[in-house]
C-alpha cells in the first residue's frame, strides 16, 4: 500500500371494527393439525418443527430463533422453507385463517430484532427461494427470487460487467428480499441511491395469501399508486416479498480507494467538501471510522493494520472510494487530491494510504466493513443507526460517553467503548455502545437518552437498519402522531388479522 418505507360505508365500518377486534386478540400457536396441513404444502425436508411428526430438537431451531447479535430471542416451534411463491401463498392463507403469526426471515442479519419472533410465530424462511429468474445484460435488469443471497447475485452478474446497486458487510448471508424489506443502505448508497429508486418491481404474498404480482421490468410506469414502495422498508409487516426486479449498474472500469488519517473530527466536514469538489463524478464512497473503531477492527483481524507512522496522532479515518470509467484519469484525480491535501498550509489530514492492488483495496474496505464484526467480538453492542447533521456526529458520540460516565456505567464493569462510524456521505452515524453484557441499567441509561438527542436534531432514529422490535416504542421520536396513525391504517388494510411480523415496526 502506498502511504499517502367502493364499499358501502356501513359495511366497511363493520368489517374494520371486527378486524380491529381480531387483531387485538392473542395469536394462535402452531398445533399438530397445522403441521399436518403444512405437510400437504411442503415436503418433510422443508419443515423444521419441534412438534410431531417433525419432532426436531429445539436446538435445531436456535439459529432461526436468535438474531445476529444474540440480543433478541423467539420461541418459535416451527420453521417453514417454501420453494415457490404458490407454496408461500398457501402457507400464508392457512396462517391467516388460523390467526397464526408469521415472521418472514431472510439471512437473519438484521440488527433491530425484526427477523426473529417475539413469541412463537411461525418462521417463514426464504432460504429455499434462491433462483435468478432473468437477467438482461443490456438494460441491467435482474429479476430474482427474494431468497437469493446478495453476494451470489453479485457473482451472477459480474461476468456481464454489472454490479449490484447495494453492498454491505453482511453480503455473504443477507438476502435481496431482506435488503428490500429493510430498505438497506450500505456502502454504495452515495453513488447509486436507495432501493426506493433501484427496485423496479416486486412480487409479494399479502397477509391473506393473495399474490401481488408487480414484478415489472419497466423503468417508467406512472399508472396510479406505486404500491411496491410500501413494501420497501416495511420489514415484513405488510407481506412477504418473494421476487425482486432490480436495476443493476454497469461495473465501473476502475475502482480505487484511499484511507485518510485525520488529526481531528473537526476536519471531516471540510475534507468532505474538498473531496466532493475535486473527485466529483468518480467519488463513490466517503466512509468514516473513529480511532476506537479502527483499533477494534485491527484488534479483531479485520483488514490489515496501517503502519504505526500512518496512524500516529490520528483521531479518526475516512475511507474514500472512486469508481470511474478510466483508470489513468481516476488515479490522476486521486493523486492530485492527495497532493492538494498534504501540501495545504494547514493540512486536514496527517497521511493517506492508497491501495495499489485488489488485495490492498479489499483490505482497506475490510477495516471499515469489519467494524460491525469487531464490536460484536469485543462485547455486546447496543447499536444505534441514526441520521443527525454531519456536524453533530462527534458530539453525539462524546455526549453519550459522558452521559454513561455520569451514570457510573462507563468502564470495564459495564460499558467498555462508545464508538462512532458510518456513512458520512449519507449523513448516517452508527453509534455503538460496546458493553460487557446487555443489562437493564445500561438500557435505561441509553434510552430514551439517545432518541431524545436525535429528536433534538430533528434526525432519524433509524437511518438504515429499520425499527424491528427494538424501536417500536421510539417511533414517535422521528414520526408525528399523524404519520403513525396513517401507518397503522395502512397496516390494518393489508393485515387486518395482525399476523404479519407481529410486534415489529408499529407501536401497540
Ligand atoms: P433478515 O435479517 O432476515 O430480516 C430483516 C427484516 O426483513 C425482518 O423484519 C424480516 O422479517 C424482514 N424480511 C426478510 N426477508 C423478507 C422477505 N422476503 N419479505 C418480507 N420481509 C422480509 N444494513 C444496512 O442497511 N447497511 C449496512 O451497511 C449493513 N451492514 C451490515 C453488516 C453486518 C455485518 C450485519 C450483520 C448487518 C448489516 N446490516 C446493514 C443489517 C442487515 O444486514 C440488513 O438489514 C439486511 O438488509 C438484512 O437482510 P436479511 O436477508 O439478513 O434480512
Ligand atoms: C455498517 O455501516 O457497517 C452497517 O450498517 C452495520 C453496523 O451498523 O454495524
Ligand atoms: Zn451502515
TrEMBL record:
Pfam families: FAD-oxidase_C, FAD_binding_4. It comes from the Eukaryota. Its cofactor is FAD. Keywords: FAD, Flavoprotein, Oxidoreductase. Gene3D superfamilies: 3.30.465.10, 3.30.70.2190, 3.30.70.2740, Uridine Diphospho-n-acetylenolpyruvylglucosamine Reductase, domain 2, Vanillyl-alcohol Oxidase, Chain A, domain 4. It catalyses: (R)-lactate + 2 Fe(III)-[cytochrome c] = 2 Fe(II)-[cytochrome c] + pyruvate + 2 H(+). InterPro entries: FAD-bd_oxidored_4_C (IPR004113), FAD-bd_PCMH (IPR016166), FAD-bd_PCMH-like_sf (IPR036318), FAD-bd_PCMH_sub1 (IPR016167), FAD-bd_PCMH_sub2 (IPR016169), FAD-linked_Oxase-like_C (IPR016164), FAD-oxidored/transferase_4 (IPR051264), Oxid_FAD_bind_N (IPR006094). One of its GO terms (molecular function) is FAD binding. SUPFAM superfamilies: FAD-binding/transporter-associated domain-like, FAD-linked oxidases, C-terminal domain. Residues 72-251 form the FAD-binding PCMH-type domain. Transmembrane segments: none annotated. PROSITE patterns: FAD_PCMH. GO terms for cellular component: mitochondrion. Belongs to the FAD-binding oxidoreductase/transferase type 4 family. This is FAD-binding PCMH-type domain-containing protein. It comes from Asterophora parasitica.
